[in-house]
Design a protein that fits this description.
Blueprint lengths: L5 H38 L4 H42 L2 E2 L6 H14 L5 E5 L6 E4 L7 E5 H6 L2 H17 L1 H29 L9 H4 L6 H24 L7 H14 L2 H11 L10 H4 L20 H12 L67
Helix pairs in contact: 1-2, 1-6, 1-8, 2-6, 2-8, 3-5, 5-9, 5-10, 6-8, 9-12, 10-12
């Protein structure tokens, strides 16, 4: 775990956030240029050099509007992304009175480390999952499913919340939101140009002559090459909307697991939480962007190269190896069917529940009264500060 380097990971996330925002504008300009080149190639019979020059002139003219539109999109995403995510997932902020168990566990965890408490939210779903969102301290929130609250015991919920708090601390959440915004802009712009071309583009041919725009005649080959260049730019940009998530290192999940152990001093709870969540986190109606923010993304697994999360198996193996945890193996749980959820702990899914261990029995203190060590942290202290065991 230490090989990943916590401080370097946080600094890398900051650099990537800035680079992605700067790169976003260049990608938008490339899309505008591709659209202009398509329009010129379909409407002007000229050689390739002339078409490229005309498209460049169109880009210069459209650049202010493209810049303003991109900046407006980023601003809207910055201020309203949480509302959009809540609308998609059905998440709602809860108070202590509405969800005392979730609220108290999160509050106690934050107080013990002097962390600003994010807004707790609950979405009604039998799925077992959680995710954090936000761009700054005022916006940060952690959303958990009602299914997670029903199935996990207090120690496991604390571990999941510690995982999400670590994502917030490490800057993973901010980077993820920025990446989602960029992917959305690229995908929208590329699809818009494609649709305009396929539905209306061919009607442009012959609408303007080369004499009107200063081009030469008999240059159909130049138009064909220009079309290929424009389509290639659009395809590349569209693919970037899919693979932009590769900017999000899968190491972030290992580090978040490690950070959770630092916070809770309970690697077994993190392991059992992952085993219960494994394969049970599908959020109906949620977009891929939302699923990529979750503790586990069950939609992956067909091509590990493009996965945003390492497998639960590899994460558990790391926790056993570096944190001294114990793996109970895959856990059999009642599968939610959308109408009935698994039996809730005593007190209801959001009410008090007895502290139980990974096996479901009441937890007992270690024989020597010591807390399990953190990852690469035998003393129980780390970037979160010393752990209060008393």
């Amino acid at each position: 775990m230490a090989a990943y380097g916590l401080y370097s990971h946080i600094q890398s996330n900051r650099r990537r956030s800035i680079a992605l925002l700067v790169g976003l504008f260049f990608l938008v300009y490339a899309l505008v240029y591709a659209g202009a080149l398509l329009a010129e190639a379909l409407s002007v019979n000229a050689d390739l050099d002339t078409l490229l020059r005309l498209a460049w002139r169109d880009l210069i003219g459209a650049a202010p509007l493209a810049t303003l539109g991109t900046a407006l999109w980023v601003a809207i995403a910055y201020y309203f992304h949480q509302g959009i995510i809540d609308a998609v997932t059905g998440g709602r902020e809860v108070t202590r009175a509405q969800a005392p168990r979730l609220y108290n566990v999160l509050e106690n965890l934050c107080i013990s480390r002097g962390i600003a408490m994010p807004k707790p939210k609950v979405m009604e779903s039998g799925a077992l999952n959680a995710f954090a969102t936000g761009m700054n301290q005022r916006q940060y929130s952690i959303t958990v499913t009602s299914g997670l609250l029903s199935v996990l015991d207090d120690a496991e919920i604390e571990s999941v919340l510690g995982h999400e708090l670590t994502h917030i601390r490490n800057g993973d959440v901010r980077l993820m939101v920025i990446a989602v915004v960029i992917a959305g802009i690229i995908s929208f712009a590329a699809e818009l140009v494609f649709r305009l071309w396929f539905y209306n583009g061919f009607s442009f041919r012959g609408s303007r002559s080369s004499d009107q725009r200063g081009g030469g005649g008999g240059a159909g080959g130049g138009a064909a090459i220009a079309l290929l260049i424009a389509v290639a730019l659009l395809v590349i940009a569209y693919l970037l909307s899919f693979i932009i998530r590769l900017a999000l290192s899968r190491a972030r999940e290992f580090l978040a697991d490690a950070g959770s152990v630092e916070l809770t001093q309970n690697p077994d709870a993190m392991i059992s939480a992952l085993r219960k969540i494994e394969g049970r986190g599908e959020l109906p109606g949620a977009t891929s962007a939302v699923m990529e923010m979750c503790v586990d993304n069950p939609r992956e697994g067909f091509g590990e190269l493009f996965d945003t999360h390492p497998t639960v198996e590899s994460r558990v193996t790391a926790l056993v190896k570096f944190a001294g945890g114990h793996d109970p193996g895959p856990l059999a749980l009642p599968q939610p069917d959308g109408e009935a959820t698994p039996a809730a702990p005593a007190g209801g899914p959001w009410g008090p529940s007895p502290a139980t261990g990974p096996s479901g029995s009441e937890t007992e203190p270690a024989a020597d009264g010591a807390s399990p060590p953190g990852i690469d942290n035998p003393s129980g202290s780390g970037p979160w500060g010393p752990h209060n065991t008393g």
